[in-house]
Amino acid sequence: MDSLPTPRRALRTAGCAIPMLLCSVIAGAQTSSSAPPQDLVFKNATVMTASHGTIEHGSVWVHTGKIAGVGESVNAPSSAQVVDASGMWLTPGIIDPHSHSALDGDVNEATSPVTPSMHMIDAFDNRSADLYRALAGGVTTELLLHGSANMIGGQAVVIKNKFGLDRDAMLFPNAPGSIKFASGENPKRVYGSRDQLPSTRMGNFEVMRMAFEDAKHYMAEWDAYDAKVKKGDKDAVAPKRDLKLEALADVLRGKLYVQIHCYRADEFLTEEAIAKEYGYKIRAFHHALEMYKVGDKIAADGTAIATFADWWGFKDEARDAIPWNAVLSMREGVKVALKSDSDDHIRRLNQEAGKMVHYGGATEDEAIRMITLNPAWIIGVDDRTGSIDVGKDADLVLWNHDPLSTYARAQKVYIDGELFFDAALPGWGTTHFSGVMHDGGGFGSDDEIGSAEDGR
Q: CA nearest 378: which of 259, 210, 279?
């Protein structure tokens, strides 16, 4: 192993990126917003594309919400609105592939270890202050996940952080579905404390296998019924519909991306073995603090990770965590994303990426990809966002400093070419929100620090 740089733990900071929202409800300030310009051009920016390097003194042309040109110059119409970005940095919008924001505490349905028919959209609060904090930190897309109390949890929802619009307008159109699985301490603690299955790691995986066996039987019943119908059997009786087993059948058919809360190297291998046994693919391991031990094996399976930059020691499963995990895993061929799992960290994901340059020697391009293009792939929307490329959604952040620096602050945040946050505006800088924000319920996470007892 190559020698590793010493972690620079005393990074300089310049205060919090966003004002803390301490009261249970706060008033939002609205700036009157007109329709976004048909054509918008950023000029003289340091353009960090995430896909094809950095362009000094670059330009980006946005046409009707899509990126239409990228380079040292662009052929935009003379009528285009121009943003002079001299001395500023332009990046893709930050993407968080593991968030529990705006769920008002409804993160876990901890009444059964198998709850795949739950949908996180049903708990989504589009007026949550969590969303404001994220937006002001440059986050434009989030995957809102079920917690980790259950071996097989609920189905996620993907949002574009168009804070101030109604709920349906914030949903990412036609984003692939994801489902949250979990292994390790949380499920066995939550249900073991009630003297029920699972109470051990063996029990965890037994619960999974039993659920998939039930799903296979359910699929076979429906296949048999469909075959009878095709043959014209008028006496064919449809099986009773089971929403739980339908969701698991979608996993087995490859219709849902499997996102797994998992820390330990041995459990990565067990999860991959079960996936192969039942014929589904794992999209990403989340947390994944021991991936550096088995990165070559997981890379061969095409599974990504969504991990912390440097969280460690907060539970038994995190004892072997190291701050070089992300970069070492990346060097083994694993696609690596950084995620928040925290309503606090979500507003500083750019700083988390900056740590990767310090911890292990990632390049700036690699670090930017960890919070843009790679998480877009985990969610399944990398063909539409996550980099500054022609044809992609114009989800963009303009920064006053190198975004990997602790001094960087998001100045303007655009989603689909429309301005949703402007630090120069009075009040909170929102362009579409008015009224009262709902308190996001604190700065909890999945929630490993401070709320692990809840199985989140």
A: 259
Whole-model pTM above 0.85?
Answer: yes
Q: Provide the terminal-to-terminal Cα distance of the chain, rounded to the nearest Å.
A: 35
Q: In the β-sheet with 157-160, what is the strand arrangement from edge to edge?
A: 94-99, 139-144, 157-160
> What is the CB neighbour count within 10 angstroms for residue 309?
22
Alpha helix segments (H runs only) across 117-200: 129-136, 185-192
Integer CA distances (angstroms), 42 to 34, 88, 191, in order: 19, 10, 53
CB 429 within 8 A of CB 440: no
Digit-coded pLDDT (tens) for 191-227: 999 999 999 999 999 999 999 999 999 999 999 999 9
Identify the H or E element spanning 25.
Answer: strand 25-28
pLDDT value of residue 435: 84
In the predicted model, what is the mean pLDDT of the chain? 91
Mean pLDDT along residues 298-310:
98
User: What distances in angstroms separate CA 382 from CA 92, 115, 131, 386, one per listed residue?
Assistant: 11, 28, 22, 6
Of residues 106, 186, 104, 117, the one with CA closest to residue 151 = 186
Read off the pLDDT band of 441 (50, 70, 90): low
pLDDT digit string (tens) for 399-427?
999 999 999 999 999 999 999 999 999 99
Structure tokens at 445: 């996470």
3 state DSSP class of 79: coil
Q: CA 403, CA 38: separation in Å to the nearest integer?
A: 27
Report H helices in 316-392: 325-331, 349-358, 364-369, 373-379
| Cβ(182)–Cβ(454) below 8 Å | no
Main-chain phi, psi angles of 226, to 5 degrees: -60, -40
